[in-house]
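Worked example 2:
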Amino acid sequence: MALVAGLAILPVAALADPAAYKAPRTSSGQPEIGGYWSNATLTPMQRDSKLGDRLVFTPEEAKALEADEAHQVDVGNKRTDPNAPVNAPNGLELKPSFLAAGGDVGGYNRGWLDPGHTVMRVGGEPRTSLLTTKDGHVPPRKTAAASTAGYYSGGGEGSRDPLGSYDNPENRPLSERCIMFGGNVGPPMLPNGFYNNDYNIVQTPDAIAIQVEMVHDTRIVRLHSQHRADDVRPWFGDSIGWWEGDTLVVETNHVPQKQAFQGAWKDLTITERFTRTAKDRLRYSFKVSSPSSWDQPWGGEYEFSPLHGVIYEYACNEGNYALPGILAGARNAERDHAAAATNGAGGR
């Protein structure tokens, strides 16, 4: 037993055993993990460095964080003046990540955002991070390990823009093209801190389908199957699953380079575990392994809570209809550059 700020905190191993709850069965006899779930939470993937090795908040700390979030919602829900200048105070300024998301055009106000209103609890413990590494951070990569950018990077040889070149649509980031957005789809499946952190899990005797609200993707986990033997790398990788008692184990490899996780992809294997621990809780854990990137596997865990509603279509439109403008702007810039170079050469 450990002491945190004078409070007794049980170690993770001493938490209520998930096996104590017996999940209902589907018509095919599988433990029931299906339905609509959400992983929205105030808890970040990586821990605030100020918290050191503390895995758990005190009850007072968790209560204060949740009260502050409630205050932000109240401020953000106040009526917006339609004549207010761009980036006028609207509640976003209370959270730096939200203020940055608004950008120079005031892209969002608080009413559009739903990051979660509570600290993530696992077995009743209010967690300081989703990662369960000692310091709550992604471990350092091996010195020689090459890192590959993921979702938000573009392509195009010679591009100096971290988001990729503007030569053609295929060189724009996956999120801008509405192919995939952030880490919600996984693996591992992680909340994005903004909105649409919702899932619909559908079970059949031979497969598990995980519909992801952000941005309309569906992962298929094949049961009673083997990994593909070629080097074809589909979006979301190649996922196979099996049941270990009441736990669904999912193993994914063949991850595409553009879906690199923390810079790893080629020899990346992610193992996920889904266990129904209560009527309203679905425990999720993941282990990340990439021998070329890290000396040891590492991972994290959290618990899904019920989504009180259903998932509707997320009608993501490529570049929000702005992709032609993005490419046209690049062509105009190229013409201006060429004209300036020509005029400069003629003046000599």
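Confidence is low (pLDDT under 50) at residues 1-14. The helical segments are 59-76, 96-102, 323-346.
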